[in-house]
């Protein structure tokens, strides 16, 4: 299981300037809130008990091995498929030291991967290598970490805890500010990240919010109808009471966009300061129960397929986006004859999704028309959440499934194990 042991204590992290309360918990006398979904209860999230279950030791993280995967294509085979000669001829060129990969001399049997730069006799060669499949991490962000790769103030970043990628880098799906906690999705696929963040999909974010003072009925209605912020109007799709005591009142809110500090600014616009903010859902992905603060969980292929399908992305091996040419000269690619003698053509994948619309978007009801103002009221947020309505929530049992898979894998004979990283991708 690709998880990193927590480095922070299990006590609740507090935001700056928040009012004193017993670890931000909801007292026993507070009215119980309705469950968020399935086995996930709102009072578990706000009490700090949410990530305190299943205390057994977590396995050590996978070693940071950066060699190509075992199923990556071999160099001489890729070059032969590119029309440079037979496999035997390519092996001979490798033996003669006339082929390099990423500036280093190639060797017989070498495997290459997406993003590698290949040169023959010092000249770059265009080859077609499928990009790695999307990987997605669910990270339980604690307060005090920033969502950036390079912070000028040298504050702790969420990326320091993540596994190292062989190619590319982790990209966050949206951001959480310094003092906001909860679910943060990260992926190695820029296309998936962009689709999950794009306003046209209207994917809802759900938060547990603690504010100073109870909201009146009029203030709730203002937040549902829309309040004016410096960067435009903003509104919640729903607001539900979440208990609390005295000055500390919890609410469960959903919103279909993710502007900078938007939730905090909306409550401030009606006269209430936010003392704690926890994201518990993004689209259909929920904060996995038992996932401790400061710990990440890699989603398995089933959860990732739900995310990519809902975002309108082709699955692995589908569509022209699954293959990319590398090492070419940009604009001049495709003007000459191809190795198969069928003439030149545009770069593979160049015409995919030029208009930014996912395949079948019209039939599935994704998104909104450009420039169309969202409807006001409890139904705000555009179209129904496609991941929620099509597939139901995911992530609730992801951690438990991962534990079960790892336990089964540990019982397998060593010779029967599949090489490479454990767990789903």
From TrEMBL:
<feature type="compositionally biased region" description="Low complexity">
    <location>
        <begin position="19"/>
        <end position="35"/>
    </location>
</feature>
<dbReference type="InterPro" id="IPR042092">
    <property type="entry name" value="PsdUridine_s_RsuA/RluB/E/F_cat"/>
</dbReference>
<feature type="region of interest" description="Disordered">
    <location>
        <begin position="308"/>
        <end position="425"/>
    </location>
</feature>
<keyword id="KW-0694">RNA-binding</keyword>
<dbReference type="GO" id="GO:0000455">
    <property type="term" value="P:enzyme-directed rRNA pseudouridine synthesis"/>
</dbReference>
<dbReference type="InterPro" id="IPR050343">
    <property type="entry name" value="RsuA_PseudoU_synthase"/>
</dbReference>
<dbReference type="InterPro" id="IPR020103">
    <property type="entry name" value="PsdUridine_synth_cat_dom_sf"/>
</dbReference>
<dbReference type="InterPro" id="IPR002942">
    <property type="entry name" value="S4_RNA-bd"/>
</dbReference>
<feature type="domain" description="RNA-binding S4">
    <location>
        <begin position="73"/>
        <end position="133"/>
    </location>
</feature>
<feature type="region of interest" description="Disordered">
    <location>
        <begin position="1"/>
        <end position="35"/>
    </location>
</feature>
<feature type="compositionally biased region" description="Basic residues">
    <location>
        <begin position="414"/>
        <end position="425"/>
    </location>
</feature>
<dbReference type="InterPro" id="IPR000748">
    <property type="entry name" value="PsdUridine_synth_RsuA/RluB/E/F"/>
</dbReference>
<dbReference type="Pfam" id="PF01479">
    <property type="entry name" value="S4"/>
</dbReference>
<keyword id="KW-0413">Isomerase</keyword>
<dbReference type="GO" id="GO:0005829">
    <property type="term" value="C:cytosol"/>
</dbReference>
<feature type="compositionally biased region" description="Low complexity">
    <location>
        <begin position="366"/>
        <end position="377"/>
    </location>
</feature>
<dbReference type="InterPro" id="IPR020094">
    <property type="entry name" value="TruA/RsuA/RluB/E/F_N"/>
</dbReference>
<feature type="compositionally biased region" description="Basic and acidic residues">
    <location>
        <begin position="399"/>
        <end position="413"/>
    </location>
</feature>
<protein>
    <recommendedName>
        <fullName>Pseudouridine synthase</fullName>
        <ecNumber>5.4.99.-</ecNumber>
    </recommendedName>
</protein>
<comment type="similarity">
    <text>Belongs to the pseudouridine synthase RsuA family.</text>
</comment>
<dbReference type="GO" id="GO:0003723">
    <property type="term" value="F:RNA binding"/>
</dbReference>
<dbReference type="InterPro" id="IPR036986">
    <property type="entry name" value="S4_RNA-bd_sf"/>
</dbReference>
<dbReference type="Pfam" id="PF00849">
    <property type="entry name" value="PseudoU_synth_2"/>
</dbReference>
<dbReference type="GO" id="GO:0120159">
    <property type="term" value="F:rRNA pseudouridine synthase activity"/>
</dbReference>
<dbReference type="InterPro" id="IPR018496">
    <property type="entry name" value="PsdUridine_synth_RsuA/RluB_CS"/>
</dbReference>
<dbReference type="InterPro" id="IPR006145">
    <property type="entry name" value="PsdUridine_synth_RsuA/RluA"/>
</dbReference>
């Amino acid at each position: 299981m690709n998880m990193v042991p927590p480095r922070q204590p299990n006590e609740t992290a507090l935001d700056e300037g928040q009012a004193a309360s017993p670890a931000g918990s909801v007292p026993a006398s507070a009215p119980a809130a309705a469950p968020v979904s399935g086995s996930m209860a709102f009072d578990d999230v706000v009490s700090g008990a949410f990530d305190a279950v299943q205390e057994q030791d977590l396995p050590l993280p996978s070693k940071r091995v950066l060699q190509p995967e075992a199923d990556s294509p071999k160099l001489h085979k890729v070059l032969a498929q590119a029309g440079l000669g037979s496999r035997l001829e390519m092996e001979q060129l490798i033996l003669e030291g006339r082929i390099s990969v990423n500036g280093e001399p190639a060797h017989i049997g070498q495997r290459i991967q997406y993003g590698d730069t290949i040169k023959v006799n010092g000249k770059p060669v265009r080859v077609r290598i499928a990009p790695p499949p999307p990987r997605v991490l669910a990270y339980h962000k604690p307060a005090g970490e920033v969502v950036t790769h390079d912070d000028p103030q040298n504050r702790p970043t969420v990326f320091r805890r993540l596994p190292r990628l062989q190619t590319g880098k982790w990209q966050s799906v949206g951001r959480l500010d310094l003092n906001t906690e909860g679910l943060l999705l990260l992926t190695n696929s820029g296309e998936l990240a962009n689709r999950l963040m794009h306003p046209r999909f209207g994917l809802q974010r759900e938060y547990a919010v603690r504010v100073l003072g109870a909201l009146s009925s009029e203030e709730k209605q203002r937040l549902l109808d829309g309040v004016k912020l410096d960067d435009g109007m903003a509104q919640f799709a729903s607001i539900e009471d979440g208990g609390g005591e005295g000055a500390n009142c919890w609410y469960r809110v959903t919103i279909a966009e993710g502007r900078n500090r938007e939730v905090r600014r909306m409550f401030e616009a009606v006269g209430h300061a936010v003392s704690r903010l926890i994201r518990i859902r993004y689209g259909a992905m929920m904060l996995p129960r038992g996932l401790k603060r400061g710990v990440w969980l890699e989603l398995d292929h089933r959860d990732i397929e739900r995310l990519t399908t809902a975002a309108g992305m082709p699955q692995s091996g589908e569509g022209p986006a699954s293959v990319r040419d590398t090492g070419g000269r940009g604009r001049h690619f495709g003007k000459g004859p191809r190795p198969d003698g069928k003439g030149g053509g545009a770069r593979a994948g160049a015409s995919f999704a030029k208009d930014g619309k996912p395949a079948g978007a019209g039939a599935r009801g994704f998104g909104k028309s450009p420039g169309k103002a969202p409807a006001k009221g409890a139904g705000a947020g555009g179209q129904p959440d496609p991941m929620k309505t099509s597939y139901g929530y995911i992530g609730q049992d992801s951690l438990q499934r991962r534990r079960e898979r790892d336990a089964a894998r540990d019982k397998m004979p060593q010779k029967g194990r599949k090489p490479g990283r454990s767990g789903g991708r």
